[in-house]
Amino acid sequence: KNEVEQSPQNLTAQEGEFITINCSYSVGISALHWLQQHPGGGIVSLFMLSSGKKKHGRLIATINIQEKHSSLHITASHPRDSAVYICAASNTGNQFYFGTGTSLTVIP
Amino acid sequence: DSGVTQTPKHLITATGQRVTLRCSPRSGDLSVYWYQQSLDQGLQFLIQYYNGEERAKGNILERFSAQQFPDLHSELNLSSLELGDSALYFCASSVGLDRAGNEKLFFGSGTQLSVL
After folding, report:
1. Average of pLDDT values for A4-26?
2. Does B2 touch chain A (CB under 8 A)?
3. In sequence order, what E strands does B1-110 have?
């Protein structure tokens, strides 16, 4: 069993739709990271969360420490949001555990 | 552009060989992380250095080693290469934790290693 599980694996949405990607983890963490990997391979760090909720533009990330669950929401999705979204858990020893990623395609 | 530079972008070599991947962090960033991304294993954390010292170790094979130099650039050395080592190797840098306990990572564009 992976320490970090993501769902769904693949997601196709129409432009403008509200999108949710889920992440569950089984390890003790100090932080939960959301990464975006573009089709060309480049990775961008979107959020680092240890509690509550963070918002950046149309992206919102939440975490529930008790339930060991995090969600990434995209409001008013756009084709340029098409990418692989990866959830990663890091512990106090700075070990990282990665989810397998959610491949998002937003259709115009 | 993240400000993190990785060289080379592509590397093709043969089994049994040794290669060195280089990472130059963003100016002022003290922390460097190395990751491996393969089709079957996904992203895996290899190792972290902070200001020249090893800080954390992940799934790094004994055939692999890394170091961070006084100018803060880092090198990942892969030896006795096997077909299964073919992967995209990323490095990321950060300034470290801020006062709120947050650490933003900036990723390089990766080195694609092909072992034939």
Report:
1. 96
2. yes
3. 5-7, 10-13, 19-24, 31-38, 42-50, 53-57, 64-68, 74-78, 87-94, 106-107
